[in-house]
């Protein structure tokens, strides 16, 4: 089991949800913590909180918009200027979108793909060479259970998370035995700002899933860090979520398509006339 002692960790998307919790739990172990996201005031507040709780570590907030190259380069420049090498990368920043795909403004789709795919790939490419040179490093990429089997009503999001899974699995093979490990975490639904932002109208509509599938953030992060320390390739936090995700994964797509037609709230295109606007009752 690896230890995080003496390491420098970079957590993306640390201003809320899973990312804030990763920062809180890592602050108890690492010696330096770098946190990033767009909302500077949230990052500064978290920095103060963590610095009070763990005065022996150094915490830096680096506000940046990771959905554009300029924003990503803020991080690159900061690391170069401070001569800092990252030992633990938590590629957590991500956003969702739900509703009929063709009604989504393309700018929203582009920004989702830039954040969920390009930024995760960019940061991995940025830190990996130094990790390989030092023969030590831990990368955690946050996927999703819908990255294993796609979900209609969130096509671009599912697709982006499938990329996270495929990219991470291939890279994991490439770096096997190098001293650097890569773990993909596939959470189920979480109580964060995620669903409110994924809704095109900003309404906080939660998906209809059984209550036992909502795993507390503390548990998700604790289990994820344990999985990374143990060098696991893939992990679904939460016992029931793990079982549900496994069954979902094993279900043939032809059967899933049939089930989705019955349960998902988007009106089926075949039932609507050509000119009728397709609506989503989730919004
Ligand atoms: N919530 C769920 O049900 C669920 C399920 C499976 C997987 N996940 C994944 O878990 C990860 C964390 O999501 P969460 O649930 O914690 O949601 P969240 O509370 O909305 O957190 C998302 C984080 O990403 C940051 N972010 C968003 N756009 C950004 C941008 N353009 N540049 C930099 N940072 C940006 C946000 O900060 P700023 O707004 O300050 O930039 C925030 O800190 C995501 O990868 C998500 O796909 C979530």
TrEMBL record:
Report the InterPro entries cross-referenced here.
NAD(P)-bd_dom_sf (IPR036291), Sc_DH/Rdtase_CS (IPR020904), SDR_fam (IPR002347)
Task: Name the Gene Ontology molecular function terms of this record.
Answer: oxidoreductase activity
Q: Which domain of life is it from?
A: Bacteria
Residue intervals passing through the bilayer: none
Note one Pfam family from the annotation.
adh_short
Keywords for the protein's UniProt record, in alphabetical order? Oxidoreductase
Which CDD domains would you find in this protein's record? SDR_c
Give the UniProt family note: Belongs to the short-chain dehydrogenases/reductases (SDR) family.
What PANTHER family does UniProt report for this protein, alphabetically?
Answer: ALCOHOL DEHYDROGENASE
Protein known as: Short-chain dehydrogenase
Name the species this protein comes from. Answer: Methylacidiphilum fumariolicum (strain SolV)
Q: Which lineage?
A: Bacteria, Pseudomonadati, Verrucomicrobiota, Methylacidiphilae, Methylacidiphilales
């Amino acid at each position: 089991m690896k230890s995080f002692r003496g390491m420098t960790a970079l957590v993306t998307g640390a201003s809320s949800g899973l990312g804030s919790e990763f920062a809180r739990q890592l602050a108890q172990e690492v010696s330096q913590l770098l946190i990033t996201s767009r909302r500077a005031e949230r990052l500064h507040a978290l920095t103060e909180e963590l610095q009070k709780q763990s005065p022996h570590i150094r915490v830096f907030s680096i506000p940046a918009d990771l959905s554009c190259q300029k924003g990503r380069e803020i991080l690159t420049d900061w690391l170069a200027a401070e001569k800092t090498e990252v030992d633990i990368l938590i590629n957590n920043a991500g956003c969702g979108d739900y509703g009929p795909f063709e009604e989504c403004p393309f700018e929203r789709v582009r920004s989702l793909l830039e954040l969920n795919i390009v930024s995760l790939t960019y940061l991995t490419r940025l830190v990996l060479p130094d990790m390989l040179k030092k023969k030590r490093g831990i990368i955690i990429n946050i996927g999703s259970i819908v990255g294993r089997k796609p979900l209609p009503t969130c096509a671009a999001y599912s697709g982006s998370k499938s990329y996270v899974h495929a990219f991470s699995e291939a890279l994991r093979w490439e770096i096997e035995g190098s001293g650097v490990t890569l773990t993909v975490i596939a959470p189920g639904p979480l109580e964060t700002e995620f669903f409110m932002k994924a809704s095109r109208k900003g309404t906080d509509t939660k998906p209809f899933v059984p209550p036992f599938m909502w795993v507390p953030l503390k548990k998700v992060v604790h289990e994820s860090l344990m999985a990374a320390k143990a060098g696991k390739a893939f992990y679904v936090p939460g016992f029931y979520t793990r079982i549900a995700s496994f069954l979902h994964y094993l279900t043939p797509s032809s059967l899933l398509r049939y089930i989705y037609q019955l349960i998902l709230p988007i009106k089926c295109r075949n039932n609507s006339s050509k000119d009728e606007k397709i609506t989503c009752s989730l919004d």
